Amino acid sequence: MFALIQNGEVFAPEAAGRISVLAVGEKIARLGTMDRAAIEDVGLGLETLDATDAFVFPGLVDPHQHLIGGSGESGFATLTPEIQLQELVRGGITTVVGCLGVDTTTRTMPALLAKAKSLRAEGLSAYVYTG
After folding, report:
1. Which CATH superfamily groups domain 2-56?
2. First to last CA, the chain
3. Rounded distance, CA 97 to CA 88, Å?
4. Per-residue three-class SS string for the chain
5. What band does 20 get if pLDDT is binned at 50, 70 and 90?
6. Residue 130, C-beta contacts closer than 8 angstroms, at least 6 positions apart
7. Within a 10 A sphere around the Cβ of 131, how many other Cβ atoms?
8. CA-CA distances (angstroms) from residue 122 to 21, 66, 94?
């Protein structure tokens, strides 16, 4: 399935102006001028979305996310759960950078690396801060 988003003000992440965005499946395939007839000729279906008067962000970067949970400053009862892929993509995030936080007793670097790798396996761009 193809989705063609037209007439929106695109930020990818810099301002790109009013250009088209072509998504193929769950991936952004192209930004810029599109030949709609050529896309339709492929025969896989084309959904066209008019984004006039809207901003289009093909994917957002979250540079500070506690992938395996966070908090714990006030004790173990205040720990938050790890984030799931669905929560990230629902918010438009396609790239995430994980960090540990204050709890290094129950939240470890190997666990953070494993979470980032699992998100990558699910199709998200995931990185971690180390040091």
Report:
1. Urease, subunit C, domain 1 (2.30.40.10)
2. 42
3. 12
4. CEEEEECCEEECCCEEEECEEEEECCEEEEEECCCHHHHHHCCCCEEEEECCCCEECCCEEEEEECCCCCECCCCHHHECCCCCHHHHHHCCEEEEEECCCCCCCCCCHHHHHHHHHHHHHCCCEEEECCC
5. very high
6. 109
7. 5
8. 23, 18, 11
Range list for CATH 2.30.40.10 in the chain: 2-56
Hey, what are 89's tokens?
């993509």
Q: How far apart are CA 32 and CA 18, in angstroms?
A: 9
Residue with tokens 């129950």: 106
Tens of pLDDT, residue by residue over 63-116, are: 999 999 987 788 888 888 999 999 998 888 989 999 998 888 889 999 999 999
